[in-house]
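TODO from last week: model DNA-binding transcriptional regulator, LysR family.
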Amino acid sequence: MDLNLFRVFEVIYRERNLTRAAAVLHVSQSAVSHALARLREQFADPLFVRQGRGVAPTAMAQRLAPGIFDSLAGLQQSLARLGRFDPATDTRLVTLNMPEQLEPTLLPGLLQQLSQAAPGLRVRTSSVRWRELPLAMAAGQIDMAIEIARPVEAALRQVQLLSEPLCVVAGPGFVGELDAQAYLAAGHVAVASWRRGLSFEDLALSHLGLARSVRQRCQNYHAACLIAANSDLLLTMARRHAELLNRGNGNRILPLPLPLPPVGLNLYWHEDMEQDACNLWLRQQLLLLAGDRG
């Protein structure tokens, strides 16, 4: 049997959709359908049947899956061990996904570190939405991602990278002491698009049974800091980022008067890259950088 068919089986089983399987495999949907037809002929079983907008495995496919997955994983690990990565000479391009607002605090330090340890390694950043990220990582379009901590599907791996406490940015227009009552009574500017819904701090407040008045929304923290500097609106954001963006603009950085959790940032990668030498090395560099940042 053509071993490529087992890879097709694996992706269809995980994606439960022929269109998504084709995207992961970088082939046409007709090629996936043709491979599935060959598999069905080999095993004399439909293997996958239509269910809603996707497909569901038959009983035989469910029996086959564990052995196929284990065999492919073992083969991939063997090949990964043969892989060689020399940071001093490697010139490959690595794609790192992160929200745009994280770039000022994370990217300069990473590039400075890599300029000495891996001068030929190139890093490109992207900002793919979370719901599209697993498919992009499975397809090899994104090597790793830095995102707010959240539950993930089985194919993704994660480790905590940073935990940033929240603070409040107040411009000259906000007068008086900042306590919990004043915070909830004030007007606020928030960084979150309407399509993505509530910001991190609004979700955290809702878990406490509290709400605030968000009078202005914008797409990045630099704009939000300028808005705070020219109004009486308060801005809630990660403290390290606030210290970076508010130098010399007259804003005060105040402690958050409510017990909201810190913003947890995790590093994510696909299980297929678990033993990849370059991916593993770069994950280690990011964790070292996070350690240096406290």
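Done. The chain has three domains: 4-82, 93-153+265-292, 166-261.
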